[in-house]
Amino acid sequence: MPPVTTDMLVVFGVVLFALFLFVTELLPIDVTAILVMVLLTVLSPWTDVSVAEGISGFSSTATVAVLAMLILSTGVNRTGVVQILGRKMAAFAGDSQPKQLAATIGIAGPVSGFINNTPVVAILVPVISDLAHTGKTSPSKLLLPLSYASMFGGMLTLIGTSTNLLASSVAERLIGRSFSMFTFTGLGVLVLLAGTAYLMTVGPRLIPERVPAREDYLDEYELQDYVTEVLVREDAAIDGKTVQDAIDESSFDADILQIVRDGETYFEGIASKRIRAGDILAIRTDRETLASLRELDGLDLVGTPPSDDELEADADTQTLVEIVIQSGSSLLGETLTTSSFRQRYDASVLAFRSGGETIRSRLDDVELRVGDTLLVQAPTDSIDRLSTNSDFIVAHESETPNYRTEKIPWAVAIVIAVVGLVGIPWGTLANVTGIDAFAALDFSIVQTALAGVVAMAVTGVIKPGEMYDGVDWSVIFLLAGVIPLGIALEQTGAATFLGALVGLTGEFLPVIGVLWVFYIVTGLVTNVISNNASVVLMIPVAVETAHEVGGNPFAFILAVTFAASTAFMTPVGYQTNLFVYGPGGYKFSDYARVGGPLQLLLSVVTTLGIAFFWGLSP
């Protein structure tokens, strides 16, 4: 064992501090990453990270490639090609749950190999939710498999997930060997097949039906005691007041959702509408607040609580729908009040799910987080606008989608070119044909992806302004911030120390056993922190451990890469898990129950696959 130095202790302290912030989410993950960057450069006498190295993550090929791939994914999204494929598979599936499950996996898995898997799930959540409700299946049965399948598919190619690109960059720095476009496609196919078999057989028995098969939001969110209709009497204090001024929201937790007057229902832009005696108001509030309002304002209860159909009085103009807060949303850290949600989006929030808990009262005071699912009532045109807003995933497809279907051939051709130019073995082609010029055409993914971005802009697949909206900047800053952490681990000898420590397991485990341990440990770490952060932390240690036990460093890098991209056991382990958390109505424990056995199965499949394809000897 090498001696522990002060430099190592300082770096370990920064790592532990970063892990604490990642797990507790006291700060957004991108802010944590920037803080880590600052700490490493300020403590450079001990971390050996200069200012240039501290900000090197912004110029890393991995960061730039991820940036470009997110823009390309946005361009493909704008054409609607993935949604169209999803609808065709939905038509094939019909009311058969096994066919619906097969369609979900069959679309999400392969597509995620060529489009970044995070936006694939964002695109498919409304498609799969509609498929479930139309086919009379609980969305819970399909949405978790959607997330998992996208993770399987992400391991088919280099560009399937940002983790692969980052791992390739770290591997090139440490051992001088990066991943090509199809380096691990064979193993990725095995993982996809094994995972699919699990989800098709064991999965349906373990995944609970948290959300009813038929869409009835008031029942699903248990809002019967929170949405009430009241009649305004002539002596009511609110008679003549506008909706906006009628209820003092600082004193009463209540919202007026709509007005029924002379047989007509008003809901759009009603904030300035004056209330009259005889109006029937639909109010979101709890029973205790309602009692206080009736006493003060002269309101009479009218019959039973309104149903979904009554709140959607005219389905062509008004609807109830769930929206999911995306990573990078401008609403993160805001409340409904501070964001002026109702005025900004012309939508009323009836309830929302956050962290597995359903919240029905004091909605205005709750800080919004990634993955929170809001049940909103809004005019149809407002829902259409929300569906094109990068702040949200609307868990229902727009009736009038504004896709650029005429650009599908361009988008598909560009993606094929981006992948193909990197995947073609130009050196081998030069040797076979004798044409030396082919050897000069050795493209990197950064080159082809950036060229693809330009091509999409020139051909009109994506508009210039949409490029910025399509990038999840929190991921970019996360990558830029954690890359220097890996450099610090390497340059201070901290990675060597940890590698030697883990290498002690080689005294009683064969090399393949140590490789399996690395897969398991990386998977557990990834389930509580970012997948990209776990790759940066674990790969340097994996390389040193491989040297200690006489193993193949490249095999250990692959084990870490695959484990970091298959975080099934918690909703926070991977962004796609968060995207389906609310719409699926899942509890935290559901991920462990379904994902635990799956993670164990794939640990064996992946470890044996690595040993078969690449061997364990250096």
From TrEMBL:
InterPro entries: Cit_transptr-like_dom, DASS-Related_Transporters, RCK_C, RCK_C_sf. It is found in: Membrane. GO terms for cellular component: plasma membrane. It is a multi-pass membrane protein. Pfam families: CitMHS, TrkA_C. Gene3D superfamilies: Regulator of K+ conductance, C-terminal domain. One of its GO terms (molecular function) is monoatomic cation transmembrane transporter activity. One of its GO terms (biological process) is potassium ion transport. This is Transporter sodium/sulfate symporter family.
